[in-house]
Amino acid sequence: MASALSPPRLPKPKGIQPSHYYEGFLEKRGPRDQDYRKFWAGLQGLTIYFYSSNRDFQHLEKLDLRTFVKLTDEAPWGGSRDPGIHFSLVLRDQEVKFKVESLESREMWKGFILTVVELRVPSTLTLLPGHLYMMAEVLTKEEARRSLELPPCFLKVSRLEAQLLLERYPECGNLLLRPSGDGKDGVSVTTRQTLSGTPVVRHYKVKHEGAKYVIDVEDPFSCSSLDAVVNYFVSHTNKALVPFLLDDDYEKVLGYVDADKENGESVWMAPSASDPDPDGPKSLPSAASSQDKLPPLPPLPRLPSQDDNYVTPIGDDPAAADYVNQDEPKGNNKPLVRKLVGGSPQAVLLATNVTAELAEKLQKRRALEQ
């Protein structure tokens, strides 16, 4: 009996090889690593991606260079027995150490990193003319990429909001770009520094003229993009000004990996806070904690007295709306009515008695007139 033919196996679709400005092997040791770990690394934009090998398409880790501070050469880790060449990448929130196989590889990595961070080809490194040409090409690509996007320190806030952000989060930077206050297509730059314990806030205007951004200072400077504007302020202040970048490395929504009930595949789940797990433990809030969350109770209404709680009828006169619990103005012959205080039972009972008494007196007066 002939066996049933199995369907032909289709070849798995191949991933697209990532494109990098520069790539090669790097040994990396982060703040939490006990030893170096070897990766295939690639630089693209302001990010270094780390892969298991040069055949992988999905990166395992990445390093954001937007908080770049400096690059330093490091002595061999572990003494002269370590033949590797070391250098250190200092970011605003961490320091990452790297090890490469040769001095040329170290200078190449440092050169490409400085090119994309500072938007200029470095001139202080030991590089060959061919290396400098490669970095000049990367510089052109990076400038074109940044001209199509806003820098991370650009926020749609007002002048006051910019000042408050720089004051509240000084660890995130002291330079911020925002829309111009005159409603035109330009932008403004707000900076905040401290001089002898006193905050110094400055605002600078940047005009958008055609395809250029002109920094309106004593000697106007033209830039090709907003990112070049940021780089101007950073480089011309000896890096005293740091672009503002809020820390967004931490997730705000709890998530976990779970198996799909229909096909069994792993999916990413994000439970809703309004839909708690019915099988999970339920904790009842204590009386003290729940009481602390209650708003303060309003003051109890004051009990009415015989000589109080009178008000002149307002009618349609808006000017009379300010007269509350005051003496009746002279010359006003309008009848007085009782004011209900706070809707208390005493006030309701008092108002009912007064109404009945007035009705009885009115009936007696009409009977005498007839």
From TrEMBL:
Q: Where is this region: Disordered?
A: 266-338
Keyword hit for Cell membrane: no
PH domain residues: 19-118
Superkingdom per UniProt:
Eukaryota
Q: Cite the SMART domains for this sequence.
A: PH
Molecular function (Gene Ontology), one example = signaling adaptor activity
Write down what this protein is called.
Signal-transducing adaptor protein 2
| Upper classification of the organism | Eukaryota, Metazoa, Chordata, Craniata, Vertebrata
